[in-house]
Amino acid sequence: MENFFSILGGMGTQATESFVRLLNQRTVTHKDQDYLNYVLFNHATVPDRTAYILDKDAENPLPFLLDDIKKQNLLQPNFIVLTCNTAHYFFETLQAATEIPILHMPREAAIEMSRRQEGGKVAFLGTEGSVKAGVYQRELEKVGFEVMLPNAALQQKVNDLIYRDIKENDFLNKELYYEILTEAIEECGCASAILGCTELSLMQEFATDNPYSVVDAQSILVDRTIERALADRKSAKEN
Questions:
Q1: Is the backbone peptide bond immediately before 12 cis, with ω within 30 degrees of 0?
Q2: Closest-CA residue to 142 (of 168, 101, 106, 173)
Q3: Helix 217-238 crosses helix 13-26 at what angle (to 10 degrees)?
Q4: C-alpha separations of 41 from 16, 37, 117, 190, 197 in Å
Q5: Using an 8 Å Cβ cutoff, are 165 and 143 in contact?
Q6: What is the pLDDT of residues 193-229, one digit of tens each?
Q7: CA-to-CA distance for 62 and 124, rounded, in angstroms?
Q8: pTM (two decimals)
Q9: Mind telling me the catalytic residues?
Q10: Disulfide-capable partner of 9 in 58, 77, 83, 90 (CB 3.0 to 4.6 Å)?
Q11: Contact of 208 with 227, CB cutoff 8 Å
């Protein structure tokens, strides 16, 4: 297979499935050959990223991710899509291990937020690992936003939605999701929220009546992936 990209997923698997589903739905097609060429690494056994970021005595996911990069170096895709937000804690190390460009989901989401909203206060919602890693905060502040991080009580609700409801029980708890958004946006005085966890993106995909302004990082990554892949396809045809 020529002219393809790779998806480094499986963290978690349901969220990766959501990414691929949106990718295929948003690709404009009239026949089978119009879909994009890609290879999916659904590496479900990568140790928990948040557990390691919060406690360095926990199993380190980095060797697993570097092994994935090593295998992708053999395949030589045009680019790599890293679908786990928290795994961007290791982004610089992963990018240094390959000449293949890796799309940076938090950066793309922050850029999109700046297109939709001119500065102001935004809420960041993600895993405790992503909050501690500070990747989203840095990217959002670069483009002029003040970032509201959840207090302990709100973060616990986010944790419950991600781990207890979605990861453990495959339950899309819309009531809790809206409760989180109400507190993050209305009660904390934010204009909007940025979803920096793929389980929250999965939640947003099915919360079709969501009344709040949110930027879903995974959704933005889907769009940038399609744009990049179609540009590569066009370039290959011209050359």
A1: yes
A2: 106
A3: 50
A4: 10, 14, 34, 36, 18
A5: no
A6: 999 998 899 899 888 888 999 999 999 999 999 999 9
A7: 24
A8: 0.92
A9: 84, 197
A10: 83
A11: no
